[in-house]
Design a protein that fits this description.
Number of strands: 0
Order of helices and strands: HHHHHHHHH
Distance between the termini: 39 Å
Largest sheet: none
Helix content: over 70%
Shape: globular
Structural class: mainly alpha
Number of helices: 9
Length: 260
Amino acid sequence: MTFALVVVGVLGLAVGSFLNVVIHRVPRGESLLRPPSHCPQCTSPIRPWHNVPVLGWLLLRGRCADCAAPISARYPLVELGTAALFVAVAARFGLSASLPAWLYLAAIAVALALIDLDALRLPNAIVLPSYLVAPLLLLPAVVVERDWGAGLRGLLAMAVLWTFYLVLSLVYPGGMGFGDVKLAGVLGLYLGWLGWSSVAVGTLVAFAIGGVAGLALLVTGRAGRRTALPFGPAMLAGALVALFAAAPITSWYTSLLLPA
């Protein structure tokens, strides 16, 4: 299993490198393939050995090889963060039939969270295809594990969360965008697959994180009451918390309601 985790970690580094391109280009409507990776300042193409995840940035000491323009440290951090998340997901689910689906969720979570923070958008180019990709990646697990109940529960939770967020967006349009509604359906599919407790934990934690972050920005003066704040990162963080800790959180909360 250790060797498998190393392989998944290396895969995460490579995916993280690609996600840097996605995060930069998708909000701008640019092609992911053309032109090849280049310095945004001098447009010089990045040499293949400088494009190696993390090591390339270290080799360049965070500067372009041609014009010496600084290269943000976020690039290697995205690569390392994606690799760490891939390893955590692989450790959680093992070499199961559903692992590719969870790795896909981890990848789009990184991309969507950072794009929403940068541009206050959850691009359709990433969210909408996930309504097809995620079920297709989960289907082998349904067949291999013969867990049709998980598949049906996931589809039902997808509809429930989508409807719940849609109602919120209609009641409070200033605080919830339709991009959040579309993302809710995808997260509902995954959380519903795990169980209804995961749906509840993921949703509640998302609103808790969003509320705390919003309050902190208000208190520090970095946002006002009318400032638009991204909610996608909180939704994705809530889903990841549920992914790894729904059971202990549910047990703790139940113990508060029903003390021994």
